[in-house]
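Please decode residue identities from the backbone states below.
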């Protein structure tokens, strides 16, 4: 029996695709092993959103060739799509498969198994709606990712994704429902809606809101979480829906990228800071205890100290509870590489640190505001003698339980008692 292992770099979308791929090999009799174990084939689902993502692929290939020298390596996904020549030169790499064909990896491996030369398969990505086979139980995640959309037409100036993932296209509506029903039947209670630009979902006459409404009707599904959604694409009805205590989590992750309008404009984002702010304040006003998160890029070309400070001041007072901070990374195909002056790495590092510290403080303040309340927690793993899980409003909670008690994949009421680093310690009620 062929042994195969998988490693996923990058975003939730990659994770959901790896889960589907893993299942397709499993049903065909391959033995799935952990990444650290010896395998005949190692698949790395790559990411190219930053230079770090690129470097991670090289680091992982080196590791595989060192500890698992007989394994044949398949590099698939975003970096494979746009840096195929470079990746094909890496040791032990036998397949380089871009996004258009990566879900056909099993067939490719079976048909092109004996050729000692690396096979590079990166055709142009189609704009058609797509289907995917259901993943079944996602072994790596209690909260299952469901891919509903791929690609993007926005062409933000810092981003290579429209090249790596192609133009926007949506999964066939009925296919989404089929997969979610299969995930629920396999035991998942929460699904996370993923895509590159999910708010632009459009398939025949179905919109993003139609997807949410249809998922709400699925018996046994308890929670629906939207992973990340572009500011200008969120239907306003979503705010009302979340406030009505439907299955939608009280959680919105809406990428801001910069708190300064000139930088937003240079980034080719489609909103001003005020428009972003009006939207999140509306959500904050209407949905009690909502958690709002965002992404921020520091060190965009030409970003002055004053512009950065304005971003800091805005993030300090806005109802945003945490932010993912990204250091600007010059991507080969992105237009921003020809804009303003590059910011020195030490300044980028300093600005990142300021925002990361602020994010930690804001998250702690948010946690503080929830102490004494009771929240439903979906438990995902056991660490030492504690079970760790997540509330719908994105609080990571730790609860002590007797050894004989398993809380895995259970939704339980927990009273939140105290903050302990990145967690809130609570007790079952
Ligand atoms: S919205 Fe902008 S940042 Fe997001 S994937 Fe599209 S081009 Fe990239």
């Amino acid at each position: 029996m062929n042994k195969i292992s998988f490693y996923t770099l990058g975003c939730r979308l990659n994770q959901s695709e790896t889960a589907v791929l893993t299942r397709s090999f499993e049903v065909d009799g391959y033995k799935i092993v952990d990444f650290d174990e010896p395998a005949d084939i190692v698949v790395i689902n790559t990411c190219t959103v930053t230079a770090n993502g690129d470097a991670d692929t090289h680091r992982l290939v080196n590791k595989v060739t060192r500890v698992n020298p007989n394994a044949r390596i398949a590099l698939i996904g975003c970096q494979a799509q746009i840096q195929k020549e470079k990746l094909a030169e890496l040791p032990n790499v036998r397949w380089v498969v871009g996004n258009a064909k990566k879900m056909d990896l099993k067939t490719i491996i079976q048909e092109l198994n004996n050729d000692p030369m690396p096979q590079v398969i990166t055709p142009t990505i189609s704009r058609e709606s797509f289907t995917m086979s259901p993943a079944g139980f996602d072994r790596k995640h209690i909260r299952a990712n469901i891919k509903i959309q791929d690609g993007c037409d926005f062409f933000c100036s810092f981003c290579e994704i429209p090249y790596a993932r192609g133009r926007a296209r949506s999964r066939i509506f009925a296919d989404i429902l089929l997969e979610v029903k299969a995930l629920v039947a396999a035991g998942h209670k929460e699904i996370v809606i993923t895509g590159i630009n999910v708010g632009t979902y459009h398939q025949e006459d179905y919109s993003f809101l139609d997807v949410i409404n249809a998922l709400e009707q699925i018996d046994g599904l308890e929670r629906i979480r939207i992973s990340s959604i572009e500011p200008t694409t969120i239907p306003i009805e979503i705010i009302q829906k979340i406030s009505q205590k439907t299955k939608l989590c009280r959680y919105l992750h809406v990428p801001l990228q910069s708190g300064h309008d000139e930088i937003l404009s240079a980034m080719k984002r489609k909103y001003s800071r005020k428009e972003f702010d009006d939207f999140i304040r509306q959500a904050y006003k209407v949905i009690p205890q909502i958690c709002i998160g965002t992404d921020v890029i520091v060190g965009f070309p030409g970003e002055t100290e004053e512009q950065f400070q304005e971003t800091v001041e805005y993030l300090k007072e806005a109802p945003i509870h945490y932010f993912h901070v990204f250091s600007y990374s010059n991507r080969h195909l992105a237009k921003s590489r020809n804009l303003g002056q590059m910011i020195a790495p030490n300044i980028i590092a300093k600005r990142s640190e300021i925002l990361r510290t602020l994010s930690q403080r804001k998250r702690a303040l948010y946690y503080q505001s929830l102490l004494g309340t009771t929240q439903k927690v979906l438990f995902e793993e056991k660490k030492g003698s504690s079970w760790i899980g997540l509330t719908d409003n994105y609080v990571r909670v730790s609860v002590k339980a007797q050894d004989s008690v398993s809380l895995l994949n259970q939704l339980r009421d927990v009273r939140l008692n105290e903050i302990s680093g990145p967690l809130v310690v609570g007790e079952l009620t």
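Observation: Residues 152, 154-156, 159, 161-162, 196-197, 230 surround iron/sulfur cluster (CB under 6 Å).
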